[in-house]
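A further point concerns the way the authors explain their paired sequence and structure data. An entry of this sort, consisting of the sequence and the corresponding C-alpha coordinates, reads as follows:
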Amino acid sequence: MKKTAFKSVTTCLMAGSVMPVYALNLADTEQEVLPTMVIEGEILTPAIVGIKPDMGGVNDAAALLKRVPGANVNSNGPLSGIAQYRGLFGDRVNVNSDGATYKSACANAMDAPLSHVPTSLTETMSIKRGIASVSSGIETLGGNIVQRTRRGEFSENDDIKFSGKTTNGVNSVNNAYYTSIFSNVANSNHKFRLGGSREEGGNYDWDGGENIDTSHERNAATLGYGYRTDDQNETSNYNDEVETPGYFIWNLRGQYRPQYHAVKGLQVGFGIENLLDESYRTHLSGLNRNAANDNTAVGEHLPGPGRNFYATLSYDW
Protein backbone atom coordinates (compact mmCIF):
# COMPACT_ATOMS: atom_id res chain seq x y z
CA MET A 1 0.00 0.00 0.00
CA LYS A 2 2.87 2.33 0.63
CA LYS A 3 4.16 1.67 -2.85
CA THR A 4 0.78 2.42 -4.45
CA ALA A 5 0.40 5.66 -2.54
CA PHE A 6 3.86 6.74 -3.60
CA LYS A 7 3.03 6.16 -7.26
CA SER A 8 -0.18 8.13 -7.02
CA VAL A 9 1.64 11.11 -5.53
CA THR A 10 4.25 10.92 -8.28
CA THR A 11 1.52 10.95 -10.92
CA CYS A 12 -0.03 14.08 -9.45
CA LEU A 13 3.30 15.84 -9.49
CA MET A 14 3.92 14.90 -13.10
CA ALA A 15 0.48 16.07 -14.09
CA GLY A 16 1.04 19.39 -12.44
CA SER A 17 4.40 19.86 -14.15
CA VAL A 18 2.83 20.44 -17.58
CA MET A 19 1.75 23.94 -16.55
CA PRO A 20 3.69 26.75 -18.26
CA VAL A 21 6.58 28.24 -16.36
CA TYR A 22 7.48 31.91 -16.65
CA ALA A 23 10.91 33.24 -15.76
CA LEU A 24 11.14 36.49 -13.86
CA ASN A 25 13.48 39.00 -15.38
CA LEU A 26 15.31 40.47 -12.39
CA ALA A 27 16.67 43.29 -14.54
CA ASP A 28 13.15 44.72 -14.86
CA THR A 29 12.46 44.72 -11.13
CA GLU A 30 13.73 46.95 -8.40
CA GLN A 31 16.45 45.13 -6.47
CA GLU A 32 16.62 45.54 -2.72
CA VAL A 33 20.11 45.90 -1.30
CA LEU A 34 20.37 43.96 1.93
CA PRO A 35 22.59 45.28 4.73
CA THR A 36 25.96 43.69 5.34
CA MET A 37 25.87 40.98 8.00
CA VAL A 38 28.96 40.31 10.08
CA ILE A 39 29.00 37.08 12.08
CA GLU A 40 31.47 36.77 14.92
CA GLY A 41 32.24 33.49 16.64
CA GLU A 42 34.63 30.62 17.06
CA ILE A 43 35.88 28.77 13.98
CA LEU A 44 35.46 25.05 14.58
CA THR A 45 38.06 22.61 13.34
CA PRO A 46 36.73 20.66 10.33
CA ALA A 47 35.75 17.01 10.87
CA ILE A 48 35.63 17.39 14.67
CA VAL A 49 32.49 17.30 16.83
CA GLY A 50 32.88 18.94 20.24
CA ILE A 51 30.57 18.72 23.25
CA LYS A 52 30.76 20.69 26.46
CA PRO A 53 29.50 19.16 29.73
CA ASP A 54 26.57 20.76 31.51
CA MET A 55 24.40 19.99 34.49
CA GLY A 56 22.66 16.63 34.40
CA GLY A 57 21.66 13.63 36.40
CA VAL A 58 24.60 11.51 35.28
CA ASN A 59 28.21 12.29 36.17
CA ASP A 60 29.71 9.66 33.85
CA ALA A 61 31.76 11.39 31.13
CA ALA A 62 30.97 8.63 28.64
CA ALA A 63 27.29 9.65 28.76
CA LEU A 64 28.23 12.82 26.86
CA LEU A 65 28.66 10.70 23.73
CA LYS A 66 24.90 10.24 23.51
CA ARG A 67 24.68 13.81 22.20
CA VAL A 68 27.01 13.12 19.27
CA PRO A 69 25.51 11.81 15.99
CA GLY A 70 26.63 8.22 15.44
CA ALA A 71 27.96 7.76 18.97
CA ASN A 72 26.54 5.94 21.97
CA VAL A 73 27.52 4.28 25.23
CA ASN A 74 27.53 0.61 26.16
CA SER A 75 26.66 0.90 29.82
CA ASN A 76 28.52 -1.48 32.07
CA GLY A 77 27.31 0.29 35.18
CA PRO A 78 26.78 3.83 36.45
CA LEU A 79 30.46 4.71 36.07
CA SER A 80 31.72 2.29 33.42
CA GLY A 81 30.39 3.56 30.11
CA ILE A 82 32.16 2.02 27.11
CA ALA A 83 32.48 4.40 24.16
CA GLN A 84 30.79 3.34 20.93
CA TYR A 85 31.08 5.17 17.62
CA ARG A 86 29.45 4.07 14.36
CA GLY A 87 28.97 0.54 15.58
CA LEU A 88 32.50 -0.06 16.86
CA PHE A 89 33.37 0.01 20.55
CA GLY A 90 35.89 -1.13 23.13
CA ASP A 91 39.54 -1.17 22.10
CA ARG A 92 38.60 -0.26 18.51
CA VAL A 93 37.83 3.29 19.72
CA ASN A 94 40.89 5.23 20.82
CA VAL A 95 40.41 7.41 23.93
CA ASN A 96 42.88 10.18 24.68
CA SER A 97 42.70 12.14 27.93
CA ASP A 98 45.04 15.15 28.27
CA GLY A 99 47.54 13.55 25.90
CA ALA A 100 47.53 10.08 27.49
CA THR A 101 45.92 7.11 25.75
CA TYR A 102 43.85 4.80 27.96
CA LYS A 103 42.76 1.21 27.34
CA SER A 104 40.12 -0.81 29.15
CA ALA A 105 41.18 -2.93 32.11
CA CYS A 106 39.50 -6.05 33.57
CA ALA A 107 38.04 -8.87 31.51
CA ASN A 108 34.63 -7.20 31.30
CA ALA A 109 36.05 -3.69 30.69
CA MET A 110 34.78 -2.48 34.07
CA ASP A 111 37.64 0.04 34.16
CA ALA A 112 36.65 1.86 30.98
CA PRO A 113 38.95 4.64 29.64
CA LEU A 114 36.37 7.38 30.22
CA SER A 115 35.70 6.31 33.82
CA HIS A 116 38.80 7.99 35.26
CA VAL A 117 37.55 11.59 35.04
CA PRO A 118 33.93 12.49 35.91
CA THR A 119 31.85 14.92 33.87
CA SER A 120 32.15 17.63 36.51
CA LEU A 121 35.94 17.77 36.02
CA THR A 122 35.78 17.56 32.22
CA GLU A 123 36.18 20.76 30.20
CA THR A 124 35.42 19.45 26.70
CA MET A 125 35.15 16.19 24.81
CA SER A 126 35.65 15.96 21.06
CA ILE A 127 35.38 13.22 18.46
CA LYS A 128 37.25 13.17 15.17
CA ARG A 129 34.74 12.16 12.55
CA GLY A 130 35.63 9.70 9.82
CA ILE A 131 39.02 8.03 9.60
CA ALA A 132 41.30 9.22 12.37
CA SER A 133 44.86 10.32 11.65
CA VAL A 134 47.72 7.90 12.35
CA SER A 135 48.99 10.44 14.90
CA SER A 136 45.88 9.79 17.03
CA GLY A 137 47.00 6.33 18.14
CA ILE A 138 47.66 2.75 17.08
CA GLU A 139 44.06 1.53 17.42
CA THR A 140 41.68 4.05 15.84
CA LEU A 141 39.50 1.90 13.58
CA GLY A 142 36.41 3.09 15.44
CA GLY A 143 37.51 6.72 15.70
CA ASN A 144 39.35 8.90 18.19
CA ILE A 145 37.88 10.55 21.29
CA VAL A 146 39.77 13.36 23.03
CA GLN A 147 38.88 14.33 26.61
CA ARG A 148 40.22 17.58 28.04
CA THR A 149 40.01 18.04 31.80
CA ARG A 150 39.51 21.36 33.58
CA ARG A 151 42.78 23.24 33.87
CA GLY A 152 41.78 26.86 34.43
CA GLU A 153 42.90 29.89 32.46
CA PHE A 154 45.68 32.42 32.83
CA SER A 155 44.81 36.03 33.57
CA GLU A 156 45.18 38.63 30.83
CA ASN A 157 47.24 40.90 33.09
CA ASP A 158 49.30 40.79 36.28
CA ASP A 159 46.22 40.97 38.50
CA ILE A 160 45.35 37.80 40.40
CA LYS A 161 42.25 36.12 38.98
CA PHE A 162 40.08 33.72 40.99
CA SER A 163 37.73 31.38 39.15
CA GLY A 164 35.98 28.11 39.81
CA LYS A 165 32.92 25.95 39.45
CA THR A 166 30.89 23.65 41.66
CA THR A 167 28.52 20.96 40.44
CA ASN A 168 26.04 19.07 42.63
CA GLY A 169 23.19 16.70 41.92
CA VAL A 170 20.92 13.97 43.26
CA ASN A 171 19.16 11.04 41.59
CA SER A 172 15.97 9.44 42.86
CA VAL A 173 16.25 6.17 40.92
CA ASN A 174 19.14 4.94 43.08
CA ASN A 175 19.23 7.44 45.97
CA ALA A 176 22.50 8.79 44.60
CA TYR A 177 24.30 12.10 44.82
CA TYR A 178 27.37 13.71 43.39
CA THR A 179 29.25 16.83 44.35
CA SER A 180 32.36 18.49 42.96
CA ILE A 181 34.30 21.73 43.22
CA PHE A 182 37.05 23.19 41.08
CA SER A 183 39.04 26.37 41.75
CA ASN A 184 41.79 28.16 39.90
CA VAL A 185 44.07 31.04 40.97
CA ALA A 186 46.11 32.68 38.23
CA ASN A 187 47.86 35.74 36.91
CA SER A 188 49.41 36.27 33.49
CA ASN A 189 52.33 33.88 34.12
CA HIS A 190 51.27 31.43 36.84
CA LYS A 191 48.17 29.40 37.60
CA PHE A 192 47.34 26.91 40.34
CA ARG A 193 44.30 24.62 40.23
CA LEU A 194 42.69 22.29 42.72
CA GLY A 195 39.55 20.20 42.34
CA GLY A 196 37.73 17.21 43.70
CA SER A 197 34.62 15.11 43.13
CA ARG A 198 32.66 12.48 45.04
CA GLU A 199 29.80 10.25 43.88
CA GLU A 200 27.83 7.58 45.69
CA GLY A 201 24.64 5.70 44.95
CA GLY A 202 22.77 2.49 45.65
CA ASN A 203 21.11 -0.07 43.40
CA TYR A 204 18.81 1.53 40.86
CA ASP A 205 15.15 0.68 40.47
CA TRP A 206 13.30 -0.25 37.32
CA ASP A 207 9.80 -1.35 36.38
CA GLY A 208 10.54 -4.94 37.42
CA GLY A 209 12.04 -4.18 40.81
CA GLU A 210 15.59 -3.49 41.98
CA ASN A 211 18.71 -4.18 39.95
CA ILE A 212 21.11 -5.79 42.43
CA ASP A 213 24.84 -4.93 42.48
CA THR A 214 24.51 -1.62 40.62
CA SER A 215 25.66 0.57 43.50
CA HIS A 216 28.68 2.77 42.94
CA GLU A 217 31.15 5.05 44.67
CA ARG A 218 33.93 7.15 43.14
CA ASN A 219 36.31 9.81 44.45
CA ALA A 220 38.46 11.90 42.13
CA ALA A 221 40.88 14.78 42.64
CA THR A 222 43.02 17.02 40.47
CA LEU A 223 45.95 19.23 41.34
CA GLY A 224 48.11 21.19 38.95
CA TYR A 225 50.34 24.16 38.27
CA GLY A 226 50.96 25.98 35.01
CA TYR A 227 53.55 28.49 33.92
CA ARG A 228 53.94 30.54 30.77
CA THR A 229 56.12 33.44 29.78
CA ASP A 230 55.81 36.14 27.18
CA ASP A 231 59.55 36.85 27.14
CA GLN A 232 61.75 35.66 24.29
CA ASN A 233 64.51 33.82 26.15
CA GLU A 234 65.61 31.44 23.40
CA THR A 235 68.59 33.20 21.84
CA SER A 236 71.50 32.24 19.63
CA ASN A 237 74.97 33.04 20.94
CA TYR A 238 76.40 32.42 17.48
CA ASN A 239 74.31 35.29 16.07
CA ASP A 240 74.92 37.54 19.10
CA GLU A 241 71.21 37.56 19.91
CA VAL A 242 69.94 39.06 23.16
CA GLU A 243 66.80 38.38 25.15
CA THR A 244 63.74 40.42 24.22
CA PRO A 245 61.12 41.39 26.84
CA GLY A 246 57.48 40.68 26.15
CA TYR A 247 55.00 43.39 25.24
CA PHE A 248 51.30 43.99 24.72
CA ILE A 249 49.77 46.64 22.48
CA TRP A 250 46.18 47.77 21.86
CA ASN A 251 44.76 48.47 18.39
CA LEU A 252 41.40 50.02 17.51
CA ARG A 253 39.96 49.54 14.03
CA GLY A 254 36.65 50.41 12.43
CA GLN A 255 35.00 50.77 9.04
CA TYR A 256 31.85 52.23 7.57
CA ARG A 257 29.97 51.15 4.44
CA PRO A 258 27.05 53.36 3.38
CA GLN A 259 24.02 51.49 2.06
CA TYR A 260 22.78 54.26 -0.23
CA HIS A 261 22.69 53.37 -3.94
CA ALA A 262 24.71 56.43 -4.92
CA VAL A 263 27.69 55.43 -2.75
CA LYS A 264 27.11 51.70 -2.54
CA GLY A 265 30.74 50.75 -3.17
CA LEU A 266 32.22 53.31 -0.79
CA GLN A 267 34.14 52.12 2.25
CA VAL A 268 35.76 54.32 4.91
CA GLY A 269 38.25 52.87 7.37
CA PHE A 270 39.83 54.41 10.44
CA GLY A 271 41.70 53.33 13.53
CA ILE A 272 44.49 53.77 16.04
CA GLU A 273 47.47 51.42 16.24
CA ASN A 274 49.44 51.12 19.48
CA LEU A 275 46.79 53.06 21.36
CA LEU A 276 48.80 53.45 24.58
CA ASP A 277 52.02 54.37 22.72
CA GLU A 278 53.81 51.33 24.16
CA SER A 279 57.58 51.02 23.69
CA TYR A 280 58.48 47.56 22.38
CA ARG A 281 60.97 45.68 20.26
CA THR A 282 60.22 42.53 18.31
CA HIS A 283 62.75 39.76 18.60
CA LEU A 284 63.47 39.52 14.87
CA SER A 285 63.51 43.24 14.16
CA GLY A 286 66.55 44.83 12.56
CA LEU A 287 69.54 46.16 14.47
CA ASN A 288 70.32 49.84 14.79
CA ARG A 289 73.31 50.94 12.68
CA ASN A 290 72.91 54.69 13.16
CA ALA A 291 74.45 56.32 16.23
CA ALA A 292 72.17 59.36 15.79
CA ASN A 293 69.01 57.40 16.70
CA ASP A 294 67.45 58.51 19.98
CA ASN A 295 67.41 56.06 22.92
CA THR A 296 68.64 53.17 20.76
CA ALA A 297 72.25 52.06 20.96
CA VAL A 298 74.13 50.80 17.96
CA GLY A 299 73.54 47.04 17.65
CA GLU A 300 70.30 47.14 19.65
CA HIS A 301 67.02 46.00 18.13
CA LEU A 302 65.07 48.80 16.49
CA PRO A 303 61.89 49.75 18.39
CA GLY A 304 58.42 49.24 16.96
CA PRO A 305 56.30 52.17 15.74
CA GLY A 306 54.53 54.34 18.29
CA ARG A 307 50.90 55.48 18.33
CA ASN A 308 49.52 55.77 14.81
CA PHE A 309 46.24 57.29 13.61
CA TYR A 310 45.15 56.16 10.18
CA ALA A 311 42.27 56.56 7.77
CA THR A 312 41.49 54.81 4.49
CA LEU A 313 39.06 55.42 1.66
CA SER A 314 38.13 52.95 -1.08
CA TYR A 315 35.42 52.66 -3.71
CA ASP A 316 34.30 49.65 -5.74
CA TRP A 317 32.32 49.86 -8.97
Remarks:
- Residues 1-19 have pLDDT under 50 and may be disordered.
- Residues 162 and 185 are 5 Å apart (CA to CA).
